Amino acid sequence: MPEKPNKFRIALISGIVIGVVSSVPGVSLINCCCCAGVWLGGVLAMYLYKQQFTEGMPPLESSDALMLGLMAGVIGAFTATCINILILVTFGPVEAELVKSIVGNMLDRLSEQGSMPSDMVETLKEQIDQSIKDAGRMSNIFGGLFITLIVYPIFTILGALLGYAIFRPKTPPQTTQA
Amino acid sequence: MEFNKRIYLILLLLVALWCAGIVLAPCLSSVLPGVSAFLYSFYSPICHQIDARSFHLFGEKIGVCSRCSAIYFGFLVSVALYPFFRKLRSPAFPKNHWIALAVLPMLIDVAANFVGIHDSSLLTRAITGLLFGLILPFYIIPPLLEGIAQLRDQQLAQGGFFYARKTQ
Questions:
Q1: Whole-structure pTM value
Q2: Measured in whole angstroms, how far is the alpha carbon of residue B34 from the centre of its chain?
Q3: Which residues of A touch B154 (CB under 8 A)?
Q4: Of A65, A116, A151, the CB nearest to B147
Q5: Assuming Cys at both sites, which of A61, A126, A147, A164 could form a disulfide with A65, CB separation 3.0 to 4.6 Å?
Q6: Quick check: A11 contacting B, CB < 8 Å?
C-alpha cells in the first residue's frame, strides 16, 4: 500500500506563501483582518495536500491537518521574519511608513470631522513615528519572531482544520475512542 | 474524564485566555504598563489595532479591533455552548454552505466599505464578525478532537507519549 504524501514539501510551499504574504508591504495588510493571510495559508496547505492523494493511499485524516498546519505555521513564521529583515535592510521600514500614511490620513479626517481631539491625533502620530524608529531594532525583530512563532501556528492549524472540514473525504466521520 | 472532554476543556481554557488578554490589555495599562504593552504587541501581528475601529475599556482601546474582537468572543461563546449542540464523543461536521453563509456578510461589509458604497461602522463590523466567530467552532472542533485522538492512537501504537498515561 502506498504511503501518504510527504507533508514537509506541502508545508514548505504553504509556509513560504504565508511568509511572503505576511511580509510584503501592502499585501501583508491582509493579516490585519484576523490573520487572514495566515489561516488562509493553512487552508491552502490542506487543499494542496489533498491534491497529492491518489487511489490506494490511506485516507486523509484530521491528524494530517493538525501536523500540516503546525509545520506550515512554523515555516511561515521563519520565512516572514527572514523576508522582513531583508526588506528592512534593503529598503528600510517600508511597511511602517505605509501604515503611517494610511492611519495618518484617517486620523486627519477624524480630526477635521471633530470625531477625535487634535492633541490625541498628534499623540497617536508620535506613537507611529516611534514604532517606525523601533522597527529596525534587533530586539524588535526577535520579539516579533517569538510572537509569530506562537501566533502563526495557532492560525495555520485553525486554517488547516477548517480546510479539512471543507475538503475532507465525504464519508461519515469515525467515532473517536473516548 | 473522557479524552475528548479533556481536549475540549483545554481548548475552552485557551480560547478564554486569548479573549482575556484582549480585555486585559487596556485594563492593565495603568497598573502594569509593561504587561499591557506586551499584550498589545502580542496581538499586533494579527490586527491593525486602529483606535477609531476598536472598542474601548477605561478610555483605552482593547487588544484588537471591533471585527476581530467580535470574531474571538463569538468563537469563545460558541466553543462554550458547543456541547449543548453537538456530541463531543462523535463530532459531526456541518455542511459547507453554512460557513459560506457566515462569511458572506463580513466579505460584503469589507468589500462595500472598500469600494465606498457603504461605510462600515463598529456595529456592522461587530455583527458580521460575531456571525463568523459563532459558526467557526462547528468546523474546527470536530477535526481537532478527531485529529488529537488519532495522534494519541498513533503514539499509543508506537508506545510513545500517551503510553504511560494509558497503562496507569
A1: 0.81
A2: 25
A3: 63
A4: A65
A5: A164
A6: no
C-alpha span between A23 and A79 (Å, rounded): 9
Poorest-pLDDT segment among A6-15, A138-147, B71-80: A138-147
Q: Is the CB of residue A77 less than 8 Å away from at least one CB of chain B?
A: no
Furthest-apart CA pair in chain B: how many Å?
63
The DSSP-derived string for A92-141 is -SHHHHHHHHHHHHHHHHHHHHTSS-HHHHHHHHHHHHHHHHHTT-HHHH
How many angstroms separate the CA atoms of A38 and A152, rounded? Answer: 6
**For the stretch A136-158, what's the b/e string if a residue is b when 16 or more beta carbons lie within 10 angstroms of its beta carbon?**
eeeeeeeebbebbeebbbbbbbb
Within chain A, what is the greatest distance between any pair of CA atoms?
A: 70
Across the interface, whether the CB atoms of B42 and A147 are under 8 A apart is answered: yes
- For residue B88, count other CB atoms closer than 10 A to its CB: 20
Q: Which residues of A touch B46 (CB under 8 A)?
A: 31, 34-35, 38, 151, 155
pLDDT tens column, B89-105: 776 788 888 988 998 99
In tens, the pLDDT along A79-115 reads: 999 998 888 888 777 766 776 777 777 777 777 777 6
